[in-house]
Specification:
This protein is 69% helix and 0% strand. By secondary structure, it is an all-alpha fold.
Length: 110
């Protein structure tokens, strides 16, 4: 049964859950970039904000949650970090979506 959940064969040790976890990590990065991009600033400022948001999240993940983290968290601290991490991604996606909806609702009909 465990062989059915592996990707690339048993020598890789990569499971479907690993792939799903990586995909959800990328979704948090995408949500943060989308949120930063929806700001009311000029294009260059929004691009810089998006890059900095993703870079900041990547640094935090690399320090505390990556498999080769410099300061890996365990137990409750790890659970709290991931709750905040994915919560921030969900909040960023929500704020970006509602900002877009507010902007389209404010545009006059032509």
């Amino acid at each position: 049964m465990g062989a059915l959940l592996t990707v690339g064969g048993p020598a890789d040790g990569l499971t479907v859950l690993d792939v799903a976890a990586f995909g959800s990590e990328l979704a948090v990065y995408a949500a943060a970039a989308w949120w930063a991009w929806t700001g009311p600033a000029r294009r260059a400022t929004r691009l810089l904000a998006a890059v900095l948001a993703v870079a900041g999240l990547a640094v935090l993940w690399g320090w505390f949650a990556a498999p080769t983290a410099a300061h890996p968290l365990h137990g409750v601290a790890r659970a709290a970090f991931e709750l905040c991490w994915y919560g921030a991604g969900a909040l960023a996606a929500y704020r970006a979506y509602t900002a877009r909806r507010r902007r389209t609702a404010a545009e006059p009909d032509l």
